[in-house]
Design a protein that fits this description.
This protein is an alpha+beta fold and 566 residues long. It contains 13 helices and 33 strands. The protein is 22% helix and 27% strand. Strands 18-17-23-14-15-22-19-20 form an eight-stranded antiparallel beta sheet.
Length: 566
């Protein structure tokens, strides 16, 4: 099926959801449906939709992720966070810490099919401390689904992630979640989106009842009222019921129905997918991931708004065509997805050509040739061997020696994509092993956590003293401690170092800095020279006393993201 032209790309919104079930709990592989010899690669890639979900913590991202898998037939029952008391867990949360604390701290890749499209959902950490991991993920996707809490609206973490999406040129589809609870006025939510992020929101549906008396959703284009069938915790797909507006009986909700009709009449219901892809507008879907309300409308319309994989620009400015040689970029490294084998998985997005298991590829950074024999789809903690992958697909390569975040793998090594942005750490501490007999395991654990990007190990240029651990947020330190304890069998202690600010500096300029208790000069694992300070005012004093210092722009500043590559 060719990619729909712009005129016919307007997504239908008045059909019942048609789900083709996959065997419950199974993984979707592409090798069975992709001919091995004669097929149109761009045409096959046009059926892919690779996206991430961005949200503030507790907006319902994990629940929505599980429900999309449910609607796609990839799981038989959704294990929402609320249902964990009944010993079910979300597929996407698989680490011990995630299961125990009910948070998402790792990334995973979830694949499902629906309506002739293959969806690659790159699930991201839901905690604010893990924003850097989420930023990396946004370099691997073609669209973003922005989830807002209907009772809170836009929140700081969502705004930060939106800035990165805008810099990436990603189309944004918006889902306003938790409409089954007391919520802000729908018109106020739309106004906030317009005011805060500068994109025109166009609602696809409208909630009926907004003060805890939720009755259903008005499908604006379809002129229907959609009532969701209640299921326990929304763990199954309800049949749902659609009724033409003229025939729907609101019963005691007559006033709520009248208000919904009046408000919906005030907003523009027509939307051009080209405007979504140009980041001028965002389609808005109201609903509730917990009860499945609005999800069928969302998943039905999604492929018309999200873009298919297209040619990506290499670091030299040349576009790498979809049908060109195989090339992929690594955006995530995760150690110990299988603790029994101490493995290391490099997640990469295929940008061009066709990946085939067992092929060789060259790391454009190191020039090293690798045989890609152990390729997997990772479905939470489960994995399945994958034989082929096309542009837009995300796969995990097990034990790819020497591969780092941002590396490009290609058939002949001539394709190199621009580095993936990184951020400076904001919190600092010592981590020390309490058992000298386990020091080797401690050292290996620290190395793996550094390769994943969970922590940054900082050392003095002369190699003396204990290394300092740098992280984006406090939770990352807790995760590092827990993983060193549970995965590597190391008891550790954490110590404060007294630093709260960091900047990157040119090595030559670092020699101009005075010896002071308020600063420390260190190098990170990528060779970047950093200056740690007790507070941000120290840097203001250095700029005043030593004019002409060359600070490298890494991290977030007042104007949004500012990066330096690896």
């Amino acid at each position: 099926m060719a990619h729909p032209d712009e005129e016919s790309a307007r997504p239908p919104r008045n059909r019942l959801l048609a789900v083709t079930p996959i065997h419950p709990g199974s993984l979707v592989t592409i090798s069975a449906s992709t001919p091995s010899v004669s097929f149109d690669l761009p045409e096959s890639a046009a059926r892919r939709r690779t996206f991430a979900i961005i949200s503030h913590p507790d907006a319902g991202k994990t629940t929505l992720t599980e429900k999309l898998l449910l609607f796609g037939g990839a799981v038989a029952e959704a294990g929402s966070v609320r249902a964990r008391r009944q010993s079910r867990n979300t597929v996407s949360d698989w680490m011990e810490m995630e299961r125990r604390r009910g948070i998402s701290v790792s990334s995973t890749v979830l694949r499902f099919e629906h309506g002739g499209y293959q969806y690659n959902l790159v699930d991201t950490p839901g905690h604010a401390d893990f924003s850097e991991d989420t930023y990396r993920t946004l370099w691997a996707v073609d669209a973003a689904l922005m989830v807002l809490d209907a009772g809170k609206g836009l929140e700081p973490q969502t705004l930060k992630l939106f800035q990165v999406c805008r810099m990436r040129g990603l189309p944004i589809i918006t889902f306003i979640n938790k409409c089954d609870r007391p919520m802000l006025a729908p018109l106020a939510l739309l106004d906030e989106i317009q005011r805060e992020i500068g994109i025109s929101p166009v609602p696809m549906n409208w909630p009926i009842g907004t003060h805890g008396q939720f009755r259903g959703l008005l499908d604006i284009a379809g002129a229907e009222v959609v009532e969701s069938e209640a299921t326990v915790h929304g763990a199954r797909i309800g049949t749902g019921r659609r009724t033409p507006v003229a025939a729907w009986d609101p019963g005691p909700a007559h006033e709520e129905w009248h208000i919904a009709q009046e408000e919906a009449a005030l907003v523009e219901a027509e939307i051009d997918p080209r405007d979504v892809r140009a980041e001028r507008v965002t389609p808005v879907f109201f609903g509730s991931a917990l009860t499945n309300a609005g999800l069928s409308t969302l998943i039905e319309a999604f492929p018309g708004f999200a873009v298919a994989p297209s040619a990506r620009q290499a670091a030299d400015g040349a576009e790498q065509p979809l049908a060109g040689q195989f090339s992929a970029q690594v955006f995530k490294v995760q150690a110990n997805t299988d603790p029994r084998h101490r493995d290391r998985v490099a997640f990469m997005r295929v940008n061009s050509g066709r990946f085939e298991r067992g092929m060789t590829a060259v790391n454009g950074r190191s020039g090293r040739r690798l045989t890609l024999s152990y390729s997997n789809e990772l479905f939470g903690q489960e994995r399945q061997t994958i034989d082929e992958a096309l542009p837009g697909d995300v796969i995990g390569i097990v034990n790819a020696t020497g591969v780092q975040v941002g590396d490009t793998l290609s058939e002949d090594g001539t394709v190199v994509y621009a580095p993936i942005p990184e951020f400076l750490p904001e919190r600092f501490a010592y981590l020390r092993s309490l058992d000298s007999s386990r020091y080797k395991q401690f050292r290996n654990g620290m190395r793996q956590l550094e390769e994943e990007g969970v922590i940054r190990v900082l050392r003095r240029p002369d190699g003396t003293g204990d290394p300092i651990i740098g992280v984006v947020g406090l939770l990352q330190l807790e995760v590092a401690e827990e993983r060193l304890t549970h995965e590597f069998g190391c008891r550790v202690e954490r110590g404060d170092v007294g630093y709260a600010a960091c900047r990157a500096i040119e090595p030559a300029d670092s020699e101009r800095l005075p010896s002071s208790r308020s600063i420390e000069i260190v190098d990170d694992g990528s060779g970047r020279r950093l200056v740690l300070a007790t507070n941000a005012y120290v840097f203001e004093r250095l700029d005043r006393d030593l004019p002409g210092l060359h600070w490298q722009p890494v991290g977030m500043d007042a104007n949004g993201p500012a990066f330096a590559g690896r």
